[in-house]
Specification:
It catalyses: UDP-N-acetyl-alpha-D-muramoyl-L-alanine + D-glutamate + ATP = UDP-N-acetyl-alpha-D-muramoyl-L-alanyl-D-glutamate + ADP + phosphate + H(+). The chain is of the alpha/beta class. It has 17 helices and 20 strands. Helix 6 crosses helix 11 and helix 16 packs across helix 17.
Length: about 450
């Protein structure tokens, strides 16, 4: 008899897992507490997969042999508590998919930079002829791609939530970019729990695998002193070469791997900013570790375009540039964003605070930000921390007012930077929704000014 597979959450990963489960002979039931997107309902219906929306049939769910849950559902959820109490195995979609492929995984995590690094690694491999899939937090679901299983490698962007429900998964190359406090509301407000979650990316790796990490990151550096690292360690550094790996040396990036050395000129790279130099070094090391020819790397990266909502040009009005960095949902991301500019900044920040510590960007804000426009339902923490630390501070509770105020505070040559440091769920569906609406609002403002 086919095993009962229950999938909780019917987004991209849940729907993909349902399709893979059906293909592998499971009896599949999908349950989503919210309302499902029409495209996913249509896919499930078309494949004869039962589902429910707007509720959870707890009795049916607790009859499962195996449960795949959306990474967005926290452990404190009552249904998850009931599942745990009954002892039903719970895994992530990535874990489930990994059971059904012999492809090798390049798995990428970190509090910041993982989307850029994932996209750049994928771009590099594809341009150099490697049969590669893209999945995880980006692209089509891994489970759906594994049904046909036509790729030699998959490049995966993995969050800590996905890693929490992965047990037998093994990466050939794991990349850990950095660890800064984030999502602490999901980790009992204990930073060490979040750190442990990130290091799960190394689980099951052997000495013939690779671990690429940014060793200038203080948390990573401390962890390396006490953790046993089984795969081959390749360090990424902005200073000197610490072991095999990569470092920045003046106007060049230097690489050393498997007794081979080469360098790439910084001015030929497609991305600006220190954080993107780290992301690029990690991607290049991954490409070199699977045996690709470094003489082709610069050309292969030359037409790379980064993800939307990450320091994205959102237009210009009367010499004031607008930049959409809506994906910056934590303080560390904002640090990198602020550090990327030399122009005076009008900074739009705020949203759903996840336990932020703003002290790590205090000096940068004093140095670079001439005005802060807070945008959220409750801006008290931002207002309290930055009062007296910026020349001007405005408090708004909607996007239209925030963009209008920011423009009024800016002069020719300034940059208005949306880099919120917070989750978006107080006013928006997600960070993409926030970023798209920001770009639209900038356009609307431009039309209004031109008209007048």
């Amino acid at each position: 008899m086919a095993k009962n597979l229950v999938i909780i959450g019917a987004g991209e990963s849940g729907t993909g897992a349902a399709l893979l489960g059906k293909a592998k002979g499971y009896t599949v039931f999908v349950s989503d507490k919210g309302l499902m997107a029409d495209k996913y309902k249509s896919i499930l219906t078309g494949n004869g997969i039962e589902f429910e929306e707007g509720k959870h049939d707890e009795a049916r769910i607790l009859n499962a042999d195996l449960i795949i849950k959306s990474p967005g559902i926290p452990e404190k959820n009552d249904l998850i508590k009931a599942i745990r109490k009954k002892g039903i195995k719970v895994i992530s979609e990535i874990e489930f998919a990994s059971y059904y492929t012999n492809a090798k995984f390049i798995a990428i995590t970190g509090s910041n930079g993982k989307t850029t690094t994932t996209l750049l690694t994928y771009h590099l491999l594809k341009k150099l002829g490697v049969n590669t899939g893209l999945a995880g937090n980006i692209g089509d679901s891994l489970a759906k791609q594994v049904i046909e299983d036509k790729f030699e490698y998959y490049v995966l962007e993995l969050s800590s939530f996905q890693l929490d429900d992965m047990f037998d998964f093994k990466a050939h190359i794991s990349i850990l970019l950095n660890i800064t406090p984030d999502h602490l509301d999901r980790y009992e407000y204990k930073f060490e729990n979040y750190v442990n979650s990130k290091f799960r990316i190394l689980q099951n790796q052997t000495s013939s695998d690779y671990f690429i990490t940014f060793t200038n990151d203080p948390v990573v550096s401390d962890q390396l002193k006490t953790r046993k690292i089984t795969p081959k360690l390749l360090s990424v550094s902005l200073s000197e070469m610490e072991s095999e790996g990569a470092c920045q040396s003046g106007e060049n990036l230097k690489f050393s791997l498997n007794r081979q050395s080469f360098s790439l000129p910084v001015n030929k790279l497609p991305l600006n900013g220190k954080h993107n130099i780290v992301n690029t070094m990690a991607a290049v090391l991954a490409a070199k570790a699977i045996g690709l020819d470094e003489s082709m790397f610069v050309e292969a990266m030359s037409d790379f375009k980064n993800a939307s909502h990450r320091l994205e040009d959102a237009g210009e009005i009367n010499g004031v540039k607008f930049v959409n960095d809506s994906k910056a949902t934590n303080v560390d991301s904002v640090f990198y964003a602020l550090d990327s500019f030399t122009e005076p900044l009008i900074w739009i920040a705020g949203g759903l605070d996840k336990g932020n510590d703003y002290s790590q960007i205090e000096q940068l804000v004093k140095d670079k930000v001439k005005a802060l426009v807070c945008m959220g339902k409750d801006n008290s923490k931002l207002v309290e921390f930055f009062s007296g630390k910026v020349q001007k501070l405005e408090d708004t509770n909607n996007l239209k007012d925030a963009v209008q105020k920011a423009f009024e505070l800016a002069t020719n040559g300034d940059v208005v930077l949306l880099s919120p440091a917070c989750a978006s769920f107080d006013l928006f569906k997600n960070y993409e929704d926030r970023g798209e609406k920001f770009k639209t609002q900038v356009l609307e403002l431009k039309k209004e000014i031109v008209k007048n």
